[in-house]
Amino acid sequence: MNLPDPDAGTGLTGPIGLGGRTAPSRVLFGPHETNLADGRAISGAHAAYYAERASGGAGVVVTEIASVHESDHPYERAPLATECVSGWSAVADACHPHGTLVLAGLGHAGSQGSSAFSQSALWAPSRVADVASRELPMAMEMREIRALIGGFGDAAELAAESGVDGVEVNAGQYSLLRQFLSGLTNQRGDAYGQDRALLVREVIGEIRSRMGSGMLLGLRLSCDELAPWAGITEDQGKEFAASLAAEVDYLAVVRGSAMGASATTPDSHTEPGFNFALCGAIREAVAGAAPVVLQGSVVEAEQAQVALDEGAADLVEMTRAQIADPGLVGKIRTGQRDRVRPCTLTNQKCRVRDNRNPVVSCVGEPRSGHETTDTDVSPGSGGEPVVVAGGGPAGLEAARVLAMRGHSVHLVERDERLGGMLALAAFLPARERIGKLVDWLIGEVRRLGVEITTGAEADMEAQHLVLATGSSPGPRPYQVGEGAVVVDVVDLLRAVRDGDLDRAVPGGPVAVFDPVGDATGVAVAELLAATGRETAILSQDQVIGTQLALTGDLADANARLQRAGVTMAKRSLLRAVRGGAADIEDVFTGEHRSIAANSVIHCGHRVPVSSDAPERARTAGDRVAPRTAHEAILEGRRAALSFARPRALVEAS
After folding, report:
1. Domains of the chain (ranges plus CATH)?
2. Cα–Cα dist 11/25, whole Å
3. Which residue, of 70, 287, 506, 513, is most buried by count of CB atoms within 10 Å of its CB?
């Protein structure tokens, strides 16, 4: 029986037995795309990335999923098992000194892959076009099935030789094995169609026979595809889990299929811990045959501990939480829970499957994914005094890092409140978690003894100065007539914060001008529609909120707008605002028309605050170029690091 050690307790930071091995905590760092690969090999950057989480207390690290057969090349820098042996060894060598168990993620994306790199037909159980790519795959014959099973066995054997502790097999959302389990994609008439779990059992058997005794085997299993008309339902998930649990050392319970890209790692519109009930049902169904891992936006230690206490899970996957704070487990273990950097669940930097091929990172922790290239923020003492002008995310991060490095810091904010635009963004629907990051930054600068002054202007004569003075509204590419009401989004959010929305936005219909296409315009439209106002959103694009494709929220955002009754004026350029109406022009036809609008909310680009400043000053955040919170925090940190390291720190190093 592969049960948790009954003497280890159920504390989140306590150990747990898995097979014949022991993980130092019940927190798992799960497999996810990183774009850190060197070609298709697990790289040194991977090793540094995983080692950071291991040193921070992660009990189990599962590496980025490696394709087990060359027919699978789902994204450009997707690892390939035959090229990962030395990389897996490096990860194991980096993580094992901390006691962390390392498992190699193994899988095949099947029809959810890409033929752009392989220039070959995608493999699938049946000829069912993928709902996202619309590509028609080939139906696998016995030749391909045998090659797939053998590929899993070969990969597991290589993993065992590399020195990792085992493997995790992917039968989750993006996997060929899930496609065999699902009636959505498996329409075969042979044994693999009559018994849809047959291939998974054969893969597990092949891995066991090839990997040898003492090695761990985990299974990531989609137990609800959220498509009850033909997909895997919770009841079927229970059956699959119960039949497979005795053959593996743990089950990681996930949900989703190709039908919903955001199902497994949704943004903050989905409540954290969304798989709590599903995981508990699966754990009950397997009846102790294997430990069960809860996955599903678990980013708070309190929720993770509740899952353990209430018997919903034996381990908890906290992947995005550990991208946000690699030291999460260690901080909890040492009673510093309030110092854990919060995950905002925005998916802005940790979701990397897009055509830019960005490296994984985090809005609040820019060093994540860049451990081999970014400077570590090490404590120091005895630095020169620095004035930081601006208390938004860039200024707060600059002050935090300067104080950590031993500088005497005076943070000055002209507003009465700290946090800047990031604090205001927390008042948008489903963006409350952004406020947690603001609170964390403020709490850290206070803890570090930064002198804080609000409602004042900074001393521009200071010898050492960081300017993080924010932005102001940019140009408005439309005419504003007499009596027209145009409200900048920042003023709108200040009114929401102060409970004075009706003063800022007159009654009657309102139009949201959204030339950027990110989360802001969509969220403002949702906010206004929720007050009962007749709301329209204007965009020059053919889809509202085009930038939300990068975070996985595009389809869901448009569905929310439709349900809220928001009028979506697509392909529309705003030409004029006049009393009671907005004049728009069709991008393609040039046709002009008017829509009712007693007010227009301007969600356009912003420009840096213009003011005189000495050349010696470092600039950061919106003062350089208004972008996202990630760039603001990154530049605030870089500005702080540009100052000479305090002498005491240099001598200590």
Report:
1. 16-339 (3.20.20.70), 386-472+611-652 (3.40.50.720), 475-604 (3.50.50.60)
2. 8
3. 513
The β-bridge partners of 465 are 387
Based on its alpha-carbon atoms, the radius of gyration of the chain, rounded to whole angstroms, reads: 26
Q: Tell me the C-alpha distance between 434 and 424, whole Å.
A: 9
The DSSP element (H or E) to which 593 belongs, if any, is: strand 592-596
Residue 348 is encoded by which pair of tokens? 């802005």
| Rounded Cα–Cα distance for residues 518 and 148 (Å) | 41
CA distance 86 to 48: 14
pLDDT single digits (tens) 29-38: 999 999 999 9
Long-range contacts of 558-566 (CB under 8 A, 24+ apart): 560/269, 560/522, 560/526, 561/522, 561/525, 561/526, 561/529, 561/537, 564/525, 564/526, 564/529, 564/530, 564/535, 565/529, 565/535, 566/525, 566/526, 566/529, 566/535, 566/536, 566/537
Longest C-alpha distance within the chain, in Å?
80
Strands 581-586 and 592-596: antiparallel
Cβ–Cβ < 8 Å for 409, 464: no
- Nearest residue to 606 (alpha-carbon basis) of 476, 497, 425: 476
Distance of CA 460 to the CA centre of its chain: 38
Kindly report, residue by residue over 332-368, the tens digit of the pLDDT.
999 999 999 999 999 999 999 888 999 999 999 999 9
Per-position DSSP letters for 147-190, written without gaps between them: HHHHHHHHHHHHHHHHT-SEEEEEESSS-HHHHHH-TTT---SS
Q: What is the pLDDT of residue 614?
A: 87
